[in-house]
Design brief:
Elements lengths: L10 E6 L5 E13 L6 E5 L4 E7 L17 H6 L3 H4 L1
Amino acid sequence: MSSSMIDRVKYVAAYQTSPISAVTHYAEVAKIEKYKDTNKYILYFKEPAEKIGPIKLPSDNPRIAPQSPRYNKLERLKEADTLEKAF
């Protein structure tokens, strides 16, 4: 996660790799703390993750599978049925 984005992150969505290949859950972030003396962070959620989608990876475009953090608005994610439409 980019340190410049920490104050802007309100929700986190989870992408499950193969064989699921989809975003399946999201959670509202309560707080984000730096982990020790590293460039990593601990995310605390307000509530347990909620199911969404699944927002599938299109079989005809597997190159768009997330390889790193992606930033988006929750509303756009909820409206999408594929990752191609989500991002």
